[in-house]
Specification:
Belongs to the Gfo/Idh/MocA family. The protein is of the alpha/beta class. The chain contains nine helices and 14 strands.
Length: 324
């Protein structure tokens, strides 16, 4: 079987998680890692038995042995690094958020179109089996018409430290791009509509970045039945981190939906179905395997996380920010 040869950009926490799970992908081979520090790249390569380590990102872009690049650098570098990789003829899986604003997302997609390159935002939640089973249950009509979507994602990042990446305003810090994009993307996945209106209650850290946000999306005409999405994100507290798709005939509950391992189907108070994927991995292998399959089929865009979805995420975030 042909394998896609991967290179990883950066050696941070998310890069480690992706590298661990890539070892379980039959259509993938991890051949290269790059970091600003040669020592960091070498240590990462040693840990995962990667044959080549580069000091500096340009060397990875120029490496002829790399087919696809996983961009795991901070948010503010996604546009530049993904652009450079596309210009070098590499396929790009860019960690979420794709960019830090809608205009940059449009610009990056334009680069993908111009270079005829593959580009996908790493919204790995969309590929998790439990989330896809929940989609199937909805499509089968098992909860009736959707009336509510509820999702939140928050962990306390305390005490506040303006130099910490998640809070750093120069690195697009704040809970919306870091965590809030998950519930926003979840609502889009199940409703596939822009909200008619958005209400927001936001709190801010001492340096001005948002650190706690509650959102109410009102869909005036959603599949012929008005519905709402109640979403939240926070650096101030551990939230429930579950998601619910609630219909007029039942509801689906997904614990820790952003990294979902299971989903449950309820009719009133009775659980009538349950799915557990039984995996021993973190779950990044599903999106990596899907990217590999896309590339082998000559696709330039994911059907599961298409460019339009990434544009909608950014647009909704900008509408939320406008209400701070």
């Amino acid at each position: 079987m042909k394998r896609i040869r991967w290179g990883i950009l950066s050696t941070g926490r998310i890069a480690h998680q992706f590298a661990q799970d890539l070892l379980h992908v039959e259509n993938a081979e991890l051949v290269c890692v790059a970091a600003r520090s040669g020592d960091a790249a070498n240590e990462f390569a040693k840990q995962y038995s990667i044959p080549r380590a580069h000091c500096g990102y340009d060397a990875l872009f120029a490496d002829p042995a790399v087919d696809a690049v996983y961009v795991a650098t901070p948010h503010t570098l996604h546009l530049a690094h993904s652009t450079a990789a596309l210009e070098a003829g590499k396929a790009v899986l860019c960690e979420k958020p794709l960019t830090t604003c809608a205009a940059d997302a449009e610009a990056l997609i334009a680069v993908a179109k111009r270079t005829n390159g593959y580009l996908m935002e790493g919204m790995w939640t969309y590929f998790l089996p439990a989330v896809q089973v929940a989609q199937r249950w909805v499509a089968e009509g098992r909860i009736g018409r959707i009336r509510h979507v509820k999702a939140d994602f928050g962990y306390p990042l305390l005490p506040f430290d303006a130099k910490r990446r998640e809070y750093d305003s120069t690195l697009a810090g704040g809970c919306l791009l870091e965590m809030g994009i998950y519930p926003i993307a979840f609502a889009w996945l199940f409703l596939k509509q822009d909200p008619a209106s958005i209400q927001v209650v936001a709190r801010h850290a001492p340096n001005g970045v948002e650190d706690d946000v509650s959102m109410l999306f009102d869909y005036a005409d959603c599949t012929a039945t008005p519905c709402t999405a109640t979403l939240g994100t926070s650096f101030r507290a551990k939230l429930r981190n579950w998601a619910y798709i609630i219909g007029d005939e039942g509801y689906i509950a997904i614990p820790d939906f952003w990294r979902a391992r299971e989903c449950m189907l309820y009719r009133l108070d009775e659980r009538i179905d349950h799915f557990d994927d039984g995996r021993r991995t973190l779950g990044f292998e599903y999106e990596a395997r899907a990217v590999g399959a896309d590339l082998m089929q000559g696709k330039r865009e994911s059907e599961i996380v298409p460019w339009e979805a990434s544009l909608r995420f950014q647009d909704h975030i900008e509408r939320i920010r406008a209400r701070f």
